[in-house]
Amino acid sequence: MIASESGGSEDVDSSIKAQLEDEVIREALTSGTDLRQYSQSVEKELRQLENLSIQDYINKAQNIATLHHQITECDSILENMQGMLEGFLTHLSTISQEIQSLQEQSASINVQLTNRKQVHKEMSTFIDQLMVPEVMIHHILNTPVTDNLFMQQLKALNQKSKFIKEQNFRDAHSCQDVQDIVDKLTVKAVSKIREYLLQKVYQFRKPLSNYQIPQNAMIKHKFFFEFLLLHARTIAAEIHDEYVETMSRVYSSYFQSYTKQLWKLQYEEGVTRDDLMGVEDSRSGAFFTKSLKSRGTVFTLGTRDCVLSPAGLTQDIIVPHTAGKGETKYAFEVLFRSQQYALMDNGCREYIFLSEFFMVRDADAMKLFTTVMGKTLQHVQKEVCGVVMGCYDSIALYLCAHLIHQYRLLCHKRAVPALDNHWEQLLHMIWPRFEYVVKMNIQSIQSCDPSKMAALDMRPHYITRRYAEFSGAVMVLHEKFPLEGVDGLMLQLQDEVEKVILKMAAVFQNRKDQLIFLINNYDMMLSVLSEKTREDSRECERLKELLGQRTGEYIEEVLAPHFGGMLTFVRETDHLIANNSTEALKDYEKKVVPLVRSFSATWKKSIERLNNEVMQCFTNFRTGTVVLQRALETLITAHHTFNRTLAHSAFNHLNIKADIVNSHHLIVEAKKYKPTF
User: What is the pLDDT of residue 399?
Assistant: First the structure.
């Protein structure tokens, strides 16, 4: 009995413990109690149960029954809660799917919004392009074409017209609503533009009109022609043809009249075929007559090259009417510069205008330019050819050739290649003529017969002066801008001048006179060329060589009458002294004493006579002093060698020490004749 009670009590205990545990769990779940607190609570209840006796259990049976009932209810609640939790988990998974679905819907709505905005933008642009505002209609119909508002609306109209054409190509029926209005506005705009441009073109035809003004106005409104090309090609062709025909006549008429009046301003007495380097000028005053002073000498450059200076190239053109009133006359190159500068300036401006206004480039621009300026260029070339073929002024021709090259470079700086062919044509006229005239001068020198010339003197000849002036002029220009073929011509001319100088020198019987004539001519040519060109130029170097050779020969000739014996003695004994040939030197004993005493007695007077003779022979004082100094240097050197020879042992036995002149005395005397400049 006791055992069963024990077993029963144990069952009750375990049941109570289980119920207590469930109750504690329920309380933990409902109250949110921490599991650690739950564990501690269970342990506490169990310890209390362990301490209870059987009677205590019996006394608390009602409580225990109530507790059991509560535990049973808690089990039911827990099962319900478990179901609720499982439903909650299922509901959570459903919410995740809904969120993903909402994200997909949001992305889809965003794409739709973007598409609608894009469509709205394109539709707005489309509608704006189709819509013809009242302000456009008003300005196209009523505003003058020169007004900026008309230009703005014209460009807008052009854009609408292009847009409608594109849409018509795509079969957009909505364009038909505004097609008629746009077409009518285009017709009105074309009509107003045509009237304006023709009016500007007709302004060119007015006499004495400044056609740069209407050209500038047309360039300002160059969009008009572009509009005509797009919408009325027939009208554009009409404007093009009217302009080309009008400007072709304007340029042709202007340059015909200008060139005709310009040639009247040329010197009345020009250079003729008789004004050649080797032809003797029979007119009084030769090339310096009063009637020719206005054109200068034929072979002198002077200031004629001012046309090639930067200021001279772009100087204002000559106005024939004004120049005619003052009876001013000009050289050919000045008139040529004025004509070609006018042509170059107008040609460059016209090429740029045609390229910009008519929207042509490269070959098309060249073709259009030739259509406009072709007649004018041909006329100018014909006129220039007529003058050049009768021109014998070689310097003028050479200046013109340089002008052509300078204007070609100026055209290239302005990015205008249209005149290149014109410059080539002019060069093909001028350069052969220049060669022809120079060769005529060379031929005239070759034909010179000194025996038929007027009496020659030892002064520089007119041929050498003409050559020096001409060569200097050509070389000055050649150094600035070398032209092919010039060096060969000038070398040929120089050779012929050297030959003719030798021919003329041969006319003099005395060798000394021949040398004086040669030195005077070489010195004059060298002086002129040195002033105009570089001293190291080919011509100057050649003249220095010839002058040095002839000066050395002249010094020997001029010293011979005064000191010839001593100079001969020095030349003959110099190599003997070098070889110490004592026996050979003894053969000169008889000559030594007379030479020493003669030199001692006459050397001062001989130097004075030498000075007078040399200074009177040369037309250039500086040249005379240079020759004299070289002669005295030669004399001093020879005398020093002479004294050194006398000191040789072969002549020690001669009683001549008292008569020997110290070289120092000779040097002191020579210093008296040294120039002070």
Answer: 95
Q: What is the DSSP string of 598-617?
A: HHHHHHHHHHHHHHHHHHHH
Lookup result for tokens 């200021």:
311
CA-wise closest residue to 532 among 476, 485, 588: 476
How far apart (Å, rounded) are the C-alpha atoms in residues 350 and 377? 13
Picking from 235, 243, 258, 255, the residue whose alpha carbon sits closest to that of residue 205 is 243
Q: Which residues contact 251 (CB under 8 A, 6 or more apart)?
A: 346, 350, 372, 373, 375, 376
- Find out whether 670 and 637 touch, Cβ atoms under 8 Å: no
Across 453-462, b (16+ Cβ under 10 Å) vs e yields eeeeebebbb
Q: Are 308 and 477 in contact (CB under 8 A)?
A: yes
Q: Give residue-wise pLDDT tens across range 81-122.
A: 887 888 788 887 788 888 888 888 899 999 988 888 888 777
**Sequence-separated (6 or more) residues with CB below 8 Å from residue 275:** 281, 287, 298, 392
What does the alpha-carbon distance between residue 456 and residue 280 come to, in Å, rounded to a whole number? 12
Hey, which residues does 330 pair with through a beta bridge?
266
How many percent of the chain have pLDDT more than 70? 86
Paired tokens of 520: 């005077």
**What are the tens digits of pLDDT across the range 166-210?**
676 666 665 666 677 888 888 999 999 999 999 999 988 887 778
Q: Residue 481 has what DSSP assignment?
A: S
DSSP assignment of 580-602: T-HHHHGGGHHHHHHHHHHHHHH
Residue 566 pLDDT > 60: yes
Cα torsion for 213, 215, 219, 222, to the nearest 10°?
130
Rg value, the chain, Cα: 60
Neighbours of 486 (CB within 10 A): 19
- Cα–Cα distance, 86 to 585 (Å, whole number): 153
Whole-angstrom CA distances from 582 to 495, 572, 575, 652, 655 are 50, 14, 12, 11, 18
Strand, helix or coil for residue 141? helix
Please, which contacts does 68-74 make with residues 24 or more away whose CB atoms are closer than 8 Å? 68/15, 68/16, 68/19, 70/19, 70/23, 71/18, 71/19, 71/20, 71/22, 71/23, 74/22, 74/23, 74/25, 74/26
Half-sphere exposure of 388 (CA within 13 A, CB side): 25
Whole-angstrom distance, CA of residue 223 vs CA of residue 196: 13
Distance CA 239, CA 225 (A): 8
pLDDT tens, position by position, 215-235: 999 999 999 999 999 989 999
Angle, in degrees to the nearest 10, between helices 332-357 and 362-388: 160
Q: Which two tokens stand for residue 109?
A: 């709505």
Distance of alpha carbon 77 from alpha carbon 90, whole angstroms = 20
